[in-house]
Amino acid sequence: MTDETQARPNRWKRFSDWDERPLRLDKFAAEDAASGFSAFKSPFDPKPGLSLGDGVVESMDGIAVRDFDMIDVFIARYHLDPEIAPEAMAMPSLEVARMLVDMNVPRKTLVRLAHGMTPAKLADVVSHLSSLEIAFAYSKMRARQTPGNQAHVTNAKDDPLQMAADAATAVAFGFDEIETTMRVARNSWSNAVACAVGAAVGRWGALFQCSSEEAEELKIGMAGFTSYAETVSVYGTEKSFIDGDDTPWSKAFLAAAYASRGIKMRCTSGAGSELLMGFHDRKSLLYLEARCLCLQRAMGVQGTQNGGIDGAPVTCTVPGGMRELMAENLIAVWLDLECASGNDARATESEIRVGAKILPYLIAGSDLICSGFGSILKYDNSFNASLLNGEELEDYLVLQRDFEADGGLTPVGETRVMELRSRAVDAISAVLEELGLAKPTADMKLSVVAASGSDETRTFSGRDVAMISEAIYERSITVIDVIKALAARGFTEEAENLLKLVRLRVSGDYLQTSAVVRDGRIVSAVNNPNDYQGPGTGYRLTDERREEIVAIRDVLTRQEVLRVEAAFRPGEVTRVAYRPTGPAAATHNPKEVVIGISPAFGLKLFQTVAGHPLSAILRVLIGGITEGGCTARVVRMRHTADTSFLGLSAARLAGSGIGIGIQAKGTAVIHQKDRLPHNNLELFSNSPITKIEHYKRMGLNAAAYALGEMPEPVIVPTRGEAMGSRYHARVSLIYAIETEMTSEGAEPEEIDVMFLGAAA
Amino acid sequence: MTGKPLTVADYPLAENRPDVVETKAGKKLDDITLDGVLSDRVSLEDLRITDRALRQQAEISTAAGRPTLAANFERGAELVDVPQDVIMRIYELLRPGRAGSRQELLAAARELRETYGAEGVAAFIEEAADVYERRSLYKKRF
Fold first, then answer.
1. What is the DSSP letter of B134?
2. B116: confidence class by pLDDT, cuts 50, 70, 90
């Protein structure tokens, strides 16, 4: 009856657990092509096609020339190469897809074909590829051989001191480009000056941009503070384009204007933007993006910031969304554009999805893996949180090390970071003072140097910053004034660095595709082209670069483990003495339990991994056995350091046939003489979470087994900690000390244990 | 400069062909030093790109198989001497609904051609004028 009266549960509680995970903050959308929610294919996408009459386009992707919208006109006129198009369009898409992943087909061959392909054709080809194939093709097709990365440097207060310190820090971590923006539009000039100065600390060459309103951004560039721009957005439908207040011609004019000012420029486009703007024309995300990318090549920009960008989060709500982002990036590089490959706007709350999102880019490499890695904390990111942020920067450094992949960053030590941050804050303070813009106090400076984020700074008020910024603008302060101010205050190196950056404009070398500055030299798709043709070609880590990448902080070494153990010795020798009394033999005392200790136990190793002194462990084990009505005998094994065999050997020596085996690291077992080695009675395998009381109860249980009883086994509760990741490196080094002390056939040794003084 | 177009091997010009790089005032890269800035021998004007440099980069882009990039550098070269306010005015005019008629764009094209010799950019704007008409972009937007 009770079964019927009790309420039946109506939900598996695991679903409630899942409800609580960050993943469930992400919302997912049903596939619905008519509403624009389709990644790769929509029934409303056109079939690839092109007809030419006398080398002139008559129709493209099913649209006759008289019905062309502005985007079609621009693509047909400036992207499509009529010499190549007939051949390229006639090739089966599957065959071209296979060429993309065929290491024997050179990149050049494929780039040439892309010049003759329509947007629908490009989309059709890449949609044949799996995610793995897209990543591989991306690695083969990206324009510059050496990968790089870009950082966001912003803060919630638009504080120039922190801006400079964080810019210097980002540069030290190896970012090739840094991008800033502001909370309050009028602060753009202050941000620009602060980042320009900060980025000149430590080394020169990090390109810098200040994302702001188009006209303002160009003005800031003209004053010499910024060296690139990437906020020139394009869209895949005509209505979105117009709603974005531009046309292909206005944007192409702007692109030429940037070139005329010697400023590196890329466009921005990404899946989902048309969806967000409400004019998706029921087309798939990939097809619209293929249009954007053909348009960008047509405009003659050297590169694109691409891969969802602000539309990445909505794209990731759709089935295949992340694969689509990779596919559009592939089209970008296939079209021979520099690709700052997104991985910026945080598309998920799930750290697993974050890691999965970044991995293909990390191992494939990209011109700029993130087009805004948040080098600052999430709340300081004025673009909104990035896929990866200051919080997670070390995770990324470790991923580089794990996969021996160059993600563009280099670990930097604590001392170096503090030096650079101090120097940057001093440098920008000197500039602000020298130009009569502000007088930062010592307290402001100190708070900024140490601050992880702007919550911790005591610095300028919002009003102060606005006044600094407006003064820079109104007084027409240029980079020349800043260089002079730096030099006047003794920041000669920074003055030189800033000048070198601005001087890049004279030759314009850095306007070429995928250009960055490495070690004071321009590296671009022109002089560092991706020549991947299979293993042994393309980008490979040099030994020097590998050294840099693997040098993360707090790496355990054997010396360090030995040092820590040695430091524990003086305490232990005041608590316990182990006196060998000769070879150990079996006895017939039925109440005797033998504790088999490992070779280095108390001789070279003095604490368990959990940090318990070995004297304390031994004391409670013996105490438990005694309390349980038996006697304990301690024997040191010298033929083995293995827990099972320590226990089994001890059991064979014990009159009761019950033995305890214990390693110095704390792993312990209760064994019985006639059992198979790995079929023990009880085992404490997780020494890091094994407490003193567990050892006490192990002693009691051993006594109970000796007396023929069946006690409740002692379970050391685990909460699923990743024991291996936390402890195995140290454990392996410790265990090696034990195994070094074993010798084949060495006899067990009777030990007289004397506890000295009080327990630890 | 020899008459021969520059190639990929000449790139980067600042490293491989400093002989062909100079500022509008004829300064060489080596003249652009911190001392020069501090003694006012180097001004912001000396840190500007020249039309010649953009055409050189266009030659390199062409050699590297990037004709559309080269075309953009060519358009950029034509705009080097166009003042900032003119650039911003024409950019604004090219945005949707700013020009009330085809004639306004054609006038801008004429200005660029006649005042600044920007033949390529002028033709580009004339092309836009046609397309805008066909796509009804001369409508006032609110």
1. H
2. very high
For residue A340, the SS3 value is strand
By C-alpha distance, the chain A residue nearest B88 is A215
Which parts of A542-699 are beta strand (E)? Answer: 576-583, 592-597, 631-636, 658-662, 668-672, 682-684
Which CATH number describes the domain made up of B82-142? Answer: 1.10.1510.20
What is the per-residue DSSP string for A459-507? ---HHHHHHHHHHHHHTT--HHHHHHHHHHTT-HHHHHHHHHHHHHHHH
Whether the Cβ atoms of residue A296 and residue A513 lie closer than 8 Å to each other? no
B142 has a pLDDT exceeding 80: no
**Percent of chain B having pLDDT more than 70?**
97
Instruction: Return the exposure string of A592-619: e unless at least 16 CB atoms fall within 10 Å of the residue's CB, then b.
Output: bbbbbbbbbbbbbbbbbbbebbbbbbbb
Q: A520: nearest CA in chain B?
A: B15
A262 at B interface, C-beta within 8 A: yes
The token pair that represents A582 in the structure block: 């000769």
Question: Structural domain boundaries of chain B?
Answer: 1-80, 82-142
Does the annotation mark A305 as catalytic? yes
Which of A605-609, B2-6, B90-94 is predicted least confidently? B2-6
Please provide residue A61's backbone torsions phi and psi, each rounded to the nearest 5 degrees: 45, 45
Domains of chain A with bracketed CATH? 50-128 (no CATH), 150-509 (3.20.20.350), 558-755 (3.40.50.10150)
Q: In chain A, which residues have pLDDT < 50?
A: 1
pLDDT value for B1: 45
The alpha carbon of residue A745 and the mean position of all alpha carbons in its chain are separated, in whole angstroms, by 50
Which of A59, A93, A188, A305 is an active site residue? A305
Q: What are the Cα distances from residue A471, in Å, to A157, A181, A195, B84?
A: 18, 18, 17, 21
What single-letter amino acid sits at A154? Answer: T
Q: Does pLDDT of B79 surpass 60?
A: yes
Backbone angles phi, psi at A374, to 5 degrees: -70, 95
Which pLDDT score, from 0 to 100, does residue A759 have?
Answer: 58
Active site residue A269: no
CB A751 within 8 A of CB A597: yes
Q: Look up residue B6 and give its two tokens.
A: 């520059």
Shortest distance, CA A513 to any CA of chain B (angstroms)? 8
Q: Is A445 on the interface with B (CB under 8 A)?
A: no
Q: Is A506 on the interface with B (CB under 8 A)?
A: yes
B142's CB contacts (< 8 A; 6+ apart) are none
Of A335, A281, A285, which is closest to residue A308 (Cα–Cα)?
A285
Q: Which residue intervals of A201-311 are DSSP H helices?
A: 214-222, 238-243, 248-260, 273-277, 285-299
State pLDDT tens for residues A587-624: 999 999 999 999 999 999 999 999 999 999 999 999 99
> What is the ipTM score, two decimals?
0.98
Question: Which pLDDT score, from 0 to 100, does residue A3 have?
Answer: 59
Active site annotation includes A663: no
Task: Check residue A452 and give its pLDDT.
Answer: 98
Q: What is the mean pLDDT of chain B?
A: 95
- Contact of A110 with chain B, judged by CB distance below 8 Å, is answered with no
Asked if residue B72 lies in contact with residue B121, where contact means CB atoms within 8 angstroms, the answer is no
Q: Which amino acid is at A405?
A: A
Residues 236-255 of A with CB under 8 A from B: 238, 242, 245-247, 249-250, 252-255
pLDDT, tens digit (0-9, with 9 covering 90-100), for A493-525: 999 999 999 999 999 999 999 999 999 999 999
Identify the H or E element spanning A620.
helix A614-627
Phi and psi torsions of A244, nearest 5°: -75, 5
| Chain B nearest C-alpha distance from A528 (Å) | 11
Query: Measured between alpha carbons, how far is A71 from A451 in angstroms, rounded to an integer?
Result: 48
Whether A519 contacts chain B with CB within 8 A = no
Give the nearest chain A residue to B132 (CA atoms): A70
